[in-house]
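Table S4 entry, histidine kinase.
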Amino acid sequence: MAQTGELAPLLEKLKSPKQDTNRVKLLNKIGDEYAYNDIKTARKYYLEGYELSKKLSFLRGIVRYFSSEGELLNLEGKYDQTLLLLREGVRLSIEKKDKMREGIMYENMGNTFALMPKLDSATTYYFKALPIFESFRDSIKTANVYNDLSSVFTQTDKQETALKYINQAISISRKFEDGFYLSHLINKEGILWKLKRRKEAETVNNQIIALANKLNDTIAMADALQNFCDHDVETQHSENLLKHATELAKLSPQLQSAERTSLADYWLSVAYYYNHNYATALNYIKKAVEKDEKLKNINHLQLYYIQYAKLLLVNNQDPILAEKYNNLADSLRNISLNNAIMKNTKELETKYETEKKEVALKQLSDENQYRKRLISLLIFSVFVLVGALIFFGLWIHNRNRIRKQEQILHEQKLRQLENEKRLLASRAVLQGQDEERSRLAKDLHDGLGGILSSVKYSFLTMKQSFILQEEHALAFEKSMNLLDSSLAELRRVSHNMMPESLVKLGIQDALRDYIHTISENISIKFTYQSFGLDTVLLENIYKTTIFRVIQELTTNVIRHSKATEAMVQVMIENNQINITIEDNGIGFDPKEVNKSKSMGILNLYHRIEYLKGKVDLQTKTNEGCSYYIEIPIQNI
């Protein structure tokens, strides 16, 4: 469903009193025009078309209603209701022996399961639809199913399989060189980048720009340039970053979008920052912030505030204002997180209500059988009770004789169990936190990120087939900007939750990479030293603890110390890990800090306490701060 800007002539045609299949098609087209702006009105036209289709016994109209209403329900997050409609569509299609409609229903069910996300079920229905479309030799539908399968395998981190299917889609859509082909190239570029095949990814991105030029698709061209900017930051190619950011800035006015213009200013700021032209970078980020504060784009503003604060910290220019913008970014992040939690809570409530109804139905079906068993159970219970009373009397008699001995043993066992439970609980909390961070980081980046990318380019694909009115085009562009910001935020959040370098490269390289990254982005000069870290094979819990301790304490140095120099040292000697973190900042009063420890500091102390380590804090006001941490290496 997509708007074409032809609403007025469609409504004029609707004045005809003729009740036939052409009227059904007209009602559906009008519903499509309202679908993304006014769901209530769209639903009204779809329903009218459905009622007329039933009167005319028009199967395609009935099935079309199931697809259209299903799309509206998907937009509202009511996936279970969508599946009920689509299953009815499958039943009718099979009954009427209409294989094409059946295949369309299967593909729609796959799309709904992918949104839920239930990727195994999505894959099953895509494979049901594929042979049907192939038997009809419908190349467009076949290519789109290959593209759908590629998206699913991308989300499940099976990138090679995803690449195989997207290549099959491209082999079909290449000859058309249309919006479908463009969306397939975009999907392939993302897969190649995840596979670290960067030269191939850049080649495909250049193809995207060339095709976008040919199709006059400035949105796709802008997105490809943003991809280049992302890649340049990741690969630290500052000169290429400035080139691509400049090209994006030249292109953005053609899109007639304030949000896109502010995004171009942001990328120019990032480019000049990495090229050490801090004054120019600061001017551009000020423009971006000013524009987006009027638009109230939360996701963009988070990104812009962080960049603004980073530039204010360069050469310690204005740390107080920088702290203000960091706090603003944190506040916006909390708003986004709360919205996500509310959405998840609503979905869980719906699931709970469904499960509760199923339990009630099962209880009703079991009620008669339960009543029949009740009398037999009561008779049996009497005999059991008499036997239990006799056994209980004998047990009491013996219990009194050995009570004192059992009491002593019981108390000893309780103390032992309490110690064991405390250790197990601490381990479970630590492991659970790290595993959940890693899982959430992966799910956000590969799951929700893949879905948002698929939604984005599905929108782009649909747009190619229609001509948008100016007001609708602006709304469409704003939606696309929100998707872009969501994807960028997902990447940043997933990296903060569990850095890839810790999993792939090991603790030594992860620490060196982390210190290098923060040293580039702030004015504090960090020195990193390590001794013996490569000579000892550490368990994951030690690696994670070392990384999280250094991450938390260096973050506090950056935020609060006002230091110009800091040192991080990790040493392993005589089966003991020694961590030292010192700075020449303003220090603080330990008594005041201990009264209200932050969540991060509390987690840090819990980790060290569980590993039987100890922390020595040395600090005074205006005399810097030193943390000395000792953790013995032992079998946990």
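The beta strands are 525-531, 565-572, 576-583, 614-619, 625-632.
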